[in-house]
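Dissemination and training. As part of the outreach component of the grant, students in the summer workshop were shown how a complex can be specified as a set of sequence lines and then modelled as a single object. The example used during the hands-on session is reproduced here so that future cohorts can follow it. Participants entered these lines:
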Amino acid sequence: MIYFSLGLIILALFGAPLFAIIAASAMVGFLGSEIDLSVMAIEVFGLAEMPILLAIPLFTFAGYLLSESGAPGRLVRITSAFLGWMPGGLAIVSLVACALFTAFTGASGVTIIALGALLFPALAHAGYDERFNLGLITTSGSLGLLFAPSLPLILYGVVAGVSIDDLFLAGVLPGVLMLILLSGYALWHNREAIKKAAAEERISLRSAVRESIWEIPLPFVVLAESIAAILPFPKPRR
Amino acid sequence: MERVGRALENVALITLLFSLIGLACAQILLRNAFSIGLPWIDELLRLILLWLAMIGAVAASRDHKQIAIDILSRFMPAHRLRWVELVTSTFTAIVTGVLCFYSARFVRQSYEFEDLLLGDWPAWVFQIILPVAFGLMAYRYGLRAIRCLLRGVAR
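and obtained this result:
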């Protein structure tokens, strides 16, 4: 059993698809308890019966729509209109924009594709080093994870049987804390570069807000809905 | 054949996604505007979701896009990587093959017991996607393993 688990871990590290690793360990578990493996098919089929899983393809689709519509560009513009005046503004702009976009799209993993291509050259241009840029963008992809309507939270709520509305409310403060800590680190890490950095182009606040007037309310609408239970997320059945 | 398969997968995914969106919107509209709900829509939506997920998994296996850890393979020279891929692909092919076999058995049982879904539809019609999708994945990974082996031997 131990050798088998070790083998699986090694296979995973060498790049075997994770679903196969998980399936294999489930099989061994079922075999060990002498349960017929058909139960796996029944489980997969039963899993699809959870009403909440429907949210995932819909959010992912919404995320791709947003990213194709040029929302990432507008989002970067509006955050830099608000925050661009600060020293090290662009790093913080990236963090805030990524967090917002992740929240808009339900943390479905579109953020890095949508914003990364935009922010990476901009950060490099502003004089941040490459390793820092890559790290910043990949980290911020998971930053919005705690804000409504994130899919991982929904999934967690379903599996653990916790109220999803509560999870969303509980995510707000830690999410903001993460944002502040990361911004602080970005400032600290780049204190040399920031001094040298040229003044970034100023963007008019009003035009930036007008451009993305239809996107800003998205996370707030979802959060307000889940608080007011106008469109309540289905309660976990367990 | 690979080209036809890809096109079929894409068409299936797009059709499923849009019928999912259409039906979900229709249900919201019916419920809120006309205060009627069609219970079969909810059940059908979940079945569409299953099909979407399974066909998506098959589509993800075609370009090796399944989620995997690439920490070691990133630093490996190409000739050694081929042998590693041979092992991981064979492993995946076996696992999906076993899944295919047992889900086929599940579907056969459901066929024999004449399980019903959505009122009076036979359940196996909807469940058939499980063995089919796992089978296709096993086929793809098996093919991949053979290709790695041939290339490795050829060198």
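Chain B is about 80% helix and 5% strand. Students were then asked to discuss how this feature might be tested experimentally.
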